[in-house]
């Protein structure tokens, strides 16, 4: 008995797969930025409170995380990466 698998090659299925892949890449990029922010703050010897850590790890907005990463390089206190939002 032959099984029809043509649905696996349909345009709609490919579009769904592409969207899923793009979403997975975005999530991975956000996770990487979270790790980078925390690393920068910790390497600079700044105290990273549980509140700051929680706010950073809970963020999924890649653009916002990028902004926080840039600020993490220069702020005198970890809490200050959130200023100016």
Can you walk through the features of this model?
By secondary structure, the chain is an all-alpha fold. The protein has a domain at 28-85. The chain is 61% helix and 0% strand. The protein contains three helices and no strands. It has helices spanning 11-43, 50-57, 62-72. α1 packs parallel to α3. The protein is elongated. The protein starts with 10 loop residues before the first helix and ends in a 13-residue tail after the last helix. The model has no long low-confidence stretch (mean pLDDT 88).
Taken in chain order, the helices and strands follow as HHH
Based on Cα principal axes, name the global outline. elongated
Radius of gyration: 19 Å
- Total helical segments: 3
Q: Into which percent range does the helicity of residues fall? A: 55-70%
Major β-sheet profile:
none
Number of strands: 0
Mean pLDDT: 88
Comma- or semicolon-separated keywords:
single chain, mainly alpha
Write a brief structural summary.
The protein is mainly α and 85 residues long. It has helices spanning 11-43, 50-57, 62-72.
Write the layout of secondary structure elements.
Layout: H1 11-43, H2 50-57, H3 62-72
Helix pairs in contact: 1-3
């Amino acid at each position: 008995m032959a099984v029809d698998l043509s649905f696996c090659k349909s345009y709609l299925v490919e579009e769904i797969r592409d969207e899923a892949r793009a979403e997975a890449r975005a999530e991975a990029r956000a996770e990487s930025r979270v790790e980078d922010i925390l690393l920068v703050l910790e390497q600079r010897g700044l105290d990273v409170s549980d509140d700051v850590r929680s706010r950073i790890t809970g963020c999924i907005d890649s653009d916002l995380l990028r902004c926080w990463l840039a600020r993490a390089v220069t702020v005198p206190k970890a809490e200050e990466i959130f200023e100016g939002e």
